[in-house]
Amino acid sequence: MHHSRFALLASLLIAALCLPTGPAFGQGLIVDHTKTTITQIPEAAILQAKQTLRIAYGHTSHGSQLIDGMNGLVGFMNGRGYPNNLYAWNEAGSNGALRLDDNAFSSFGADDLGAPNRTAWDGATRSYLAANPSTNVIIWSWCGQVDGSQAEIQNYLDRMSQLERDFPAVRFVYMTGHLNGGGATGNVNVRNNQIRAYCLANNKTLYDFADIESYDPDGLVHYMPLNCDDGCNYTSGGVGHNWATEWQAAHTQNVDWYNCGAAHSQPLNANRKAYAAWWLWARLAGWAGPVADSTPPTVPASLHTTSVAYNRVELAWSAAVDAESGVSGYRIYRGGAFLSFATGTSYADATVSAGESYTYTVRAVNGASLLSGDSNTVTADTPVPTDTQDPSVPGNLQAGAITTTTLHLTWNASTDNIGVTGYRVYRDGSLRTTVAGTSFDDSGLTPATSYSYRVSALDAAGNESDQSAARTVQTTDPTDTEPPSVPNGLTVGTVTSTTVQLSWNAATDNNAVAGTMCTATVRWSPRPRARALATLGARLRQRTATG
After folding, report:
1. Which of the chain's termini has less CB crowding within 10 Å, N or C?
2. 121 band by pLDDT with thresholds 50, 70 and 90
3. Is 314 helix (H, G, I), strand (E, B) or coil?
């Protein structure tokens, strides 16, 4: 039995649900070898992908090139001066990483587009989405089975198209199959061209696996017509070559390319698969693509400190301007060395030590990845602390008033030996805001998406408590229009002067029952002891997680 207590002062009405809107995806999109310049993707677009995408990927060995490439990319880009772990991913999306469920469908009966057969992936996709409704990107790869008949490939295309109609809030990514040395007239290329033509004609999203491995980074030679295979081997003038190993040998490791796993192939091929994958993620998350822009943004002005504590320095500055490609974010430097990246005009450095002096500058980055000059320099001298005791951890973090794009958080107040001055709210591992009270209204969320929240407490000395236990919340889903069953067994329990205890049997729903709406008809009694309300009748109505 579910139990709820309601203070009934007149007629009671709980919960008002908003109608959701679908996630904003682009129209048609082709990601091929021309979409592998990762430095053209603004850092802000990477962050947006990490915040909004919930990806499920099905593959076997050839498809693992994307994953191996993405794994190696993290350290490679860290070493090139990009924000630490900017390109990180994991299956939970924890610590601010991209949420990508790798080998997502194996437990649902399929591994790739041809294993165990050519249709199992369809049912596995449907079962997976039923169990994971917050997923908004589905991508499947081939492992040789693209070498089939025209009818078999058309069946794949038809099934993908039907999934798009059945799940309009999900972006389905089509894919070509790997090269096999058959050249331009071989069946694999014919079937890949069938997939390409369909995607172009019908405004689909295509990750062109075969085209990406048909070119080296210079892009001057098309290796597929030279009978190039999946290992990057080809023949020219009767001499065997490998475009990947030859390019690697002529360039500098960890500067121009990085070592990583690459099933059936070479690291450079997996590098390029990873670059293209992040181009895909960024475009799906709303990035419009690179803009022709040769002018850097203006210099950020008025850099200053807003708070200096023994363990934290908070900075703020005036926004830069870029009329062509726009300002995508800011790079923060400490002592002349790159420190971090921020999309807004403030930043908190929590890596300082007490009793030290630090200097900071900021540079703006535009949509073409061009940097402005340095801002003014600001110096922060951290004090020696007199109070080093952290506040207690906020408890009982709760979420309510959940709609497609908003929710309300509350928690219990913390205590401190001197006094609590505020609370930091973290969403998916990143600081969302700092508030003075014990509640926060979050907005701008994506429908049918799960978010994880934690809260910490602050005191005047800058001490921060440990973060609270996580509260995972899913925004409502615009595609779920099936109401739950009617609850039954409504009974009235204890009645006091201000409360009435009600209980009922749980309802069921195709998605989930997220809450209860209660309405009651009440009557005032003129007798002093019964200024409490007498319940004449009550009705309950369940609501789903989607409203």
Report:
1. N
2. very high
3. strand
State the pLDDT at residue 338: 86
Structure tokens at 512: 């989930």
Structure tokens at 526: 């003129």
> How much is the pLDDT for 39?
85
Single-letter residue type at 528: P
Q: What is the C-alpha to C-alpha distance for residues 240 and 205, in angstroms, rounded to an integer?
A: 35
Quick one: tokens of 204? 């689909």
Q: What is the pLDDT of residue 1?
A: 39
Mean pLDDT over 96-106 rounds to 96
Model pLDDT for residues 243-281, shown as the tens digit of each residue: 999 999 999 999 899 999 999 999 999 999 999 999 999
**Token pair for 251:** 């360039």
Q: Which residue has the tokens 């995607």?
A: 199
Q: Are 65 and 260 in contact (CB under 8 A)?
A: no
Q: What are phi and psi of 29, to 5 degrees?
A: -155, 125
Predicted confidence at residue 540, as pLDDT, reads: 44
The token pair at 365 is 């980055």
Q: What is the pLDDT of residues 410-442, one digit of tens each?
A: 999 999 999 999 999 999 888 899 999 999 999
| 296 cis-preceded (ω within 30 degrees of 0) | no
CA distance 427 to 105: 27
Inter-CA distances, 218 with 4, 209, 364, Å: 66, 17, 29
CB half-sphere exposure, 445, CA atoms < 13 A: 27
Terminal-to-terminal C-alpha distance of the chain: 22
Between CA 392 and CA 458 the distance in angstroms is: 9
Specify the pTM: 0.63
Q: Which two tokens stand for residue 273?
A: 């698969």
Q: What are phi and psi of 2, to 5 degrees?
A: -95, 135
3-class SS of residue 254:
coil
Quick one: residue 396, left, alpha or beta (phi over 0 = left, psi -120 to 50 = alpha)? Answer: left
Measured in residues, the chain has a length of: 547
pLDDT higher than threshold 70 for residue 20: no
Distances (CA, A) of 488 to 397, 522, 537: 30, 21, 14
